[in-house]
Write a structure and sequence with these properties.
By secondary structure, the chain is an alpha/beta fold. The chain has 2 domains: 90 residues, no CATH class; 282 residues, TIM Barrel, CATH 3.20.20. 38% of the residues lie in helices and 12% in strands. It contains 17 helices and 11 strands. The strands form 2 sheets. Strands 3-2-1-4-6-7-8-10-11 form a 9-stranded mixed beta sheet, covered by helices on one side. The chain has a two-stranded antiparallel ribbon with strand order 5-9. Helix 10 links the parallel strand 7 and strand 8.
Length: 393
């Protein structure tokens, strides 16, 4: 297998995601997380990117061996004939020969504080998702994805710790120290959440990293207009800042897939952002739920830069887990879309879903709607709902 297929990914040598709240790091945004060894980090300042597990996984890359943390979003997608992140982001060419290196990009998850529970998100990155699971219990019938939708003891604790106190932990301070130590080497800093605009330390964080030439801040624009306007007014002096607006739908589809947002409020906040001098791009996460209204979103906002990623986690949400009629309609819509690398979306759409993926999508969608009063799944095509065999009302 290793002789006939290239398993290398340059992101393993260039990218580090830090999540102080969950006490994890990722050596690629698409990889599975690794727990932080606090004692090791105390004894090896500035080496968070060169932990023993990261070095071992990079050596596997150099030896063209398939490694476990890359299974969930890349290798498994490619096994199914779809395009994983390493393909559509162009990371298959060899860039490094040494396992010890420094990150070029850091993705800093500053908090899971979030007032939305997006359809493709989970308890790890949204406090609203966490509240739902703690209050209403685990989702069922989702196979190997179950842990994504099961509250843990850590989730229970996090709900009772204030944002301010979460940021006082020793690990949080150590990880901030790591960011400071490696920042001279960085080409890009990505700030994610949760919803960063709900973090009370956001401006302080931006002040501390203003020496980094490229800063990308993700937001769903779901916060109150007063708060958003106040913070945007404080950001107008950051020439190195780009705000990445997370969206892939408009109107009812937007309110469904980014549950908790109001379309009218989103448009008001977007207008505030467009009137500032801050660079903007749109980032779309494409799943079997968000792909349905994507063409309408594209046609409305194609005057902006649009980038995308294809979700392969959870395993029932890739874009191809849809019925034949919907697939044909969406493929035809892509004839009029000029999005860069759209051929990789088309390649993924042409993959074939399994019966297990169909059933798990049905189980998920049923429970997702049941827990959110007033949410209407009748916005989806009738053929898609019939294929899922959900009880449409």
């Amino acid at each position: 297998m290793s002789k006939s297929r290239n398993y290398y990914c340059s992101n393993k040598f260039k990218f580090l995601k830090i999540d102080a709240e969950q006490k994890t790091t990722y050596n690629c945004h698409a990889a599975a997380p690794h727990a932080v060894d606090l004692m090791w980090l105390r004894n090896n300042p500035g080496q968070l990117f060169n932990t023993p597990i990261n070095l071992a996984e990079r050596q596997m890359m150099l030896d063209n061996q398939r490694n476990k943390s890359c299974e969930q979003n890349c290798y498994r997608a490619e096994d199914n004939g779809a395009a994983g992140p390493r393909l559509y982001e162009g990371h298959v060419e060899r860039t490094h020969t040494n396992v010890v290196t420094m990150p070029e990009t850091i993705d800093l998850t500053i908090s899971s504080e979030c007032n939305l529970s997006c359809s493709y998100c989970c308890r790890e990155f949204s406090s609203l998702w966490r509240q739902d699971l703690v209050k209403n219990g685990s989702y069922t019938g989702l196979g190997n994805n179950d842990s994504r939708y099961q509250p843990t003891s850590i989730d229970q604790v996090l709900l009772h710790i204030s944002q301010k106190n979460r940021q006082k932990s020793e690990l949080h301070k150590l990880l901030n120290q790591e960011l400071s130590l490696v920042s001279p080497h960085l080409k890009k800093l990505v700030i994610t959440g949760g919803e960063p605009f709900l973090n009370n330390s956001l401006i302080e964080i931006l002040d501390n990293v203003k020496n980094i030439k490229n800063i990308k801040l993700f937001t769903s624009l779901g916060v109150s207009t007063a708060r958003f306007r106040r913070l945007i007014n404080q950001m107008t002096g950051y020439e190195n800042l780009t705000i990445a607006v997370s969206m892939e739908n408009i109107g009812p589809y937007h309110e469904f897939n980014r549950f908790g947002t109001v379309w009218k409020n989103f448009l008001t906040n977007l207008e505030i952002l467009e009137q500032s001098n801050i660079a903007i791009l749109f980032h779309s996460t494409l799943t079997n739920l968000t792909i349905h209204g994507f063409a309408d979103f594209y046609n409305r906002f194609k005057h902006h830069n649009i980038e995308f990623d294809l979700a392969h986690q959870p395993t029932f949400m890739p874009v191809y887990v849809i019925d034949h009629q919907s697939r044909e309609k969406i493929l035809k819509q892509f004839d009029d879309i000029t999005l860069p690398k759209k051929e990789l979306i088309i390649k993924s759409l042409n993959s074939v879903p399994s019966e297990q993926q169909r059933q798990q999508t049905s189980n998920f969608l049923t429970q997702f709607v049941q827990r959110r009063p007033g949410l209407n799944w009748n916005i989806f095509p009738a053929d898609f709902l019939k294929w899922l065999n959900v009880n449409v009302v």
